[in-house]
Structures are given as C-alpha cells and as structure tokens.
Amino acid sequence: MSSSTPGPSVSPAYWGEACQHLMRKDRVMKRLIPACGAVCLESRGDAFVTLARSVVGQQVSVKAAQAVWDRFAALPKRMTPASVLKLKVDDMRAAGLSARKVEYIVDLALHFQGKKLHVGDWPDMDDEAIISELVAIRGIGRWTAEMFLIFHLLRPNVLPLDDAGLIKGISESYFSGEPVSRSDAREVAEVWAPWRSVATWYIWRSLQPLPVAY
Question: Which CDD domains match (predicted)?
Fold first, then answer.
C-alpha cells in the first residue's frame, strides 16, 4: 500500500547478502529466490502515513482500502498529524472511514503530535521495544507493528507468525499443503535467521508474485 504521493523507494543494503545466506541454508529458498528475479523489498513514505494507511486497510479488501484512502488523503493539504487533527469527523466519515477508524487515526495523530513515540530513536531500538510503542496506539496490533518493522524500517529478522499468508506459504512450500501450526512455522524459520524478514517476503511472493509496498 504505497502512499498516494509516494516518496522515493529505498531497498535494504543487506538484501544480496541475505539471499545468498538463505539459498545456501534452505532448499525452498534456493528455488524461490531466483524465480523472483531482481525485485526486492522497498520502503517509501513516512512513518505516520504508513501507519495511517494500515489502519484504513484493516478488515477491508485492498481495492476498498485504496478507494477510502484516496478520498481521505484528499482532505488535508498534506498528510501530517497536525493537519489530520484539524479535520472534521463528519468529513472523515464521508470519506468512508468507520467511526472506530476515525478514532484510531485521531489517536495515531495524537501519539505523533504529542511526541509519545520515540521516532528518532527507532533506528537504535530493538524490534520488541518498537512493537511495544506501536501497540499502545489504539487500532494497532502486533501484526501491524511487524508489517511496519518489515516494510518501513526494513528490519531484517522479523517473523510475523500472525500473518495468514506466511503460514499458508510455509504450508504449501514446505508441507505439501498440509495445515501448519505456529510452532511448525517457527521451526522452519529457524534456519532463516538472521534474515527472516527476507525469507518471509519470498514466501509472500510464492503466493502473490507482485510485491506489495506499505
């Protein structure tokens, strides 16, 4: 889900090294990685926009989320916490946001505006510390925080066990389609460390060849 006016995309410097490691250690990765060609994970936009989009996209189709986001993003001159806090609730509802999602986005803007998030410190904080900050915001759960770590902060070793696509992809690629538990998935992913985000991205590609950008 890229922003309506996406900034330049950034790819992780570690990608090539990670791919070499994964292809050496894992027979499935040895097949999946070359099949994907030169595409790789990309980060764009800013932290507030990325998280606001994740809230808008909850529990609706990608197409519906895009339509609502386009209408919502047209309301402020710039998509910043300060400008969102000046919007009228009725206008946000008219753009297609539910009452609950309006509350979530306002809470998100208040967290950014009130300096409750240590955005400048995130590069030096570990993954779990950042997740703890993000899940304190209404409407943001662990899965959303993990997507933020992977797609925005480009953290290399995130394993989002709540992600249905990851579980499905592991089932299809490693267990011939048999049902897979979280512990099965965690065991498969042990060999992926310290590049579990990269392996997860290739598992997603095995199900949906076109990359998604958050």
Answer: ENDO3c
State which CATH number among 2.40.10.10, 1.10.3210.10, 3.40.50.11720, 1.10.1670.40 fits the domain covering 15-41+158-207.
1.10.1670.40
Residue 8 is predicted with a pLDDT of: 60
Angle subtended at Cα 114 by Cα 112 and Cα 118, rounded to the nearest 5 degrees: 60
Q: Give the pTM.
A: 0.86
Distances (CA, A) of 148 to 23, 106, 107: 26, 19, 17
Look at residues 124, 118, 94, 103 and name the one whose alpha carbon lies nearest to residue 52: 103
Q: Is the pLDDT of residue 117 over 60?
A: yes
Q: What are the tokens at 137?
A: 């915001």
Q: Which of 58, 80, 57, 59 is nearest to 70 (CA)?
A: 57
